[in-house]
Amino acid sequence: MSESIIKIEHLCKTFGTGDGQVKALQDVDLDIQKGEIFGIIGLSGAGKSTLVRCMNLLERPTSGTVTVDGQELTALKPKELRAARRKMSMIFQGFNLLMQRTSLENICFPLELNGLRGEKTWRKKRAMELLEIVGLPDKADAYPVQLSGGQKQRIAIARALADEPQVLLCDEATSALDPTTTQSILDLLKKINREMGVTVVVITHEMRVVEQICDRVAVLEGGVVQEQGPVSEIFSNPRTEAGRRLVMPNGEKIHVLPANRLVRIVFNGAVASEPIISEIGIKLGIRLNICAADTRTIGDKAFGSMVLALPEDETDAARALIYLREIPGVTAEEVTDLVQ
Fold first, then answer.
1. Does the pLDDT at position 250 exceed 60?
2. Distance, CA of 293 to CA of 308 (rounded, Å)
3. Spatial separation of the C-alpha atoms in residues 113 and 151, rounded to whole Å
4. Per-residue pLDDT, 1
5. Average pLDDT over residues 77-81
6. Where does a domain end: 212, 242, 272?
């Protein structure tokens, strides 16, 4: 059985008072396991950044508890909290490198702050090891202004790993990067997770980031966890409107006539090559309109997703739904909240 590394229970965070009060987080429960890559996804204003800052108590929750590796952070005294925070490091969208320091010096900086000064040669050796891990051993003497965005983020990741944390918190760490660089950073995070055993928590508004890297995901909206579970399960069978919006093909709502009903089907790689829509036309004599379609890879498995407009005839619509739901490896759910 997996062991928890971060456990959040009944967490609430409120800003302001009176009429100006904002409930940023409401009764959040999360259980993140050691060694996994856990995603927290939501649109802008969902409370994602507030939640990740509550994990290391950069923001103190209004109520609820945060427990990291068996220690309840919300009950610790300031000195104890500073020591406990060393188990977690954080990387940001804006990199936050010190412009007057070289890459090597940026990586050494947290070791100095945490009192792990040791010998200067030891700090340099540790920094060079991390530069090798992130693939930039030749940038030791480069200043941030001499680096690309992707290189800056790699240096930020190396700096976050300097103190050997158990958890790496990534707050929109790829949002400022182009798609190719984003992929390289996601591959690096997977490598760190796999080879170093570091638990990674990914905060993002992009479903494709979650699909490519995460084991499990929580969907956050309005400060509330709408649903959570394995990424493949959330993609295949989202239970909430927030979840369905995030997994929608092309990420958009569908334009259809008011008379049409919609069904979203998801099929795994085992049946992706089957002519499902054609078979319905041949066997049942029913024509279905494809409103949207997409194919995604989650983990090592390919998933296809379609939104179909059912025929206006209620009998034909019911027959088509029954047929789709009886196909092995296919999930079919009628949806009403994807229509614009």
1. no
2. 9
3. 23
4. 46
5. 89
6. 242
Supply the range of the domain harboring residue 291: 248-335
Question: What distance lies between CA 22 and its chain's CA centroid?
Answer: 24
CATH assignment at residue 117: 3.40.50.300
In this structure, the answer to whether residues 84 and 42 fall within a common structural domain is yes
Alpha-carbon gap, residue 193 to 311, rounded angstroms: 47
CA distance 104 to 123: 9
* Adjacency order of strands within the sheet including 63-68: 22-33, 4-15, 63-68, 71-72
Give the residue-averaged pLDDT of 269-291. 75
Q: Which is nearest to 295 in space by CA: 257, 233, 241, 250?
A: 250
Cα(234)–Cα(204) distance, rounded to whole angstroms?
A: 16
Find which of 148-157, 255-264, 295-304, 312-321 is predicted with most confidence, using mean pLDDT.
Answer: 148-157
Does a structural domain hold residue 154? yes
Residue type at 315? T
Which pTM value belongs to this model? 0.83
What amino acid occupies position 186?
A: L
Which segments of 60-178 does DSSP mark as H helices, in order?
78-85, 103-113, 120-133, 149-161
